[in-house]
């Protein structure tokens, strides 16, 4: 009987000793509060929060204010993870005035509209002046069967505009043949052509049908002007001999290849300065666009 009582006493003593040890290991309310407070102050997300921590019988009560909802959740999580905490009563509030003072993230710029597709302007096209076109020019100097020499050059200006060539454009011509008329026999001859024309800073080589004039050398002398090609060339200025001379006019077109007048005596073919001569292109002429 005595042995049984002794055994019971040992068991009770051991249980009391274990309970005492267990109680000594459980943190006190003050220790739990200090642990939570220090962790809140150290955490970078919650260190700016104004939080008070009280603990009673292991139950944690949180009061005060936090900067953001995220900080509020973090404080609550720290309290839940604290050793010895048996419950959480989170009474903290989010300080909305602090949230309003925080700079708002910059709004994304509106999407930039794609630039409109580049529309290429059509390139200017060259102007082609066909063969058969008549160029009427005024010579800048006097020409004649006696005064001019074969191979001489002369200058002229365009009297009438042609498609792509403005009036007053400068042209250059050449004396193909010049032969004075003899007093009693032999005929005077004068043959001209245009070789180039300048248009807006560009000089173009051109080909025209020759403009031929002859004066016969005995009896009644006849002055005639002919031009090659269907349209023909015409001497509009005149063929003169001495004195005032005789002016010969002609319409340019089919059948205008021969015009003439009657001269007597020892006359020469003379074309005064500023006379108008019409030459016919025997080959097409291509004029560059103005932009080139």
Q: Report the portion of residues in β strands.
A: 25-35%
| Rg estimate, integer Å | 59 Å
CATH architecture of the largest domain: Beta Barrel
- Per CATH, the superfamily of the largest domain is Type IV secretion system, VirB10/TraB/TrbI
Quick structural overview:
By secondary structure, the chain is α+β, with helices and mostly antiparallel strands. 20% of the residues lie in helices and 32% in strands.
Fold and architecture overview:
With 292 residues, the chain is of the alpha+beta class. The protein folds into two domains: 74 residues, Histidine-containing Protein, Chain: A, CATH 3.30.1340; 161 residues, Type IV secretion system, VirB10/TraB/TrbI (Lipocalin, Beta Barrel). 20% of the residues lie in helices and 32% in strands. It has four helices and 18 strands. Strands 6, 8, 9, 10, 11, 12, 13, 14, 15 and 17 form a ten-stranded antiparallel sheet that branches. Strands 1, 2, 3 and 4 form a four-stranded mixed sheet that branches. Strands 5-18 form a two-stranded antiparallel ribbon. The protein is rod-shaped, with a radius of gyration of 59 Å.
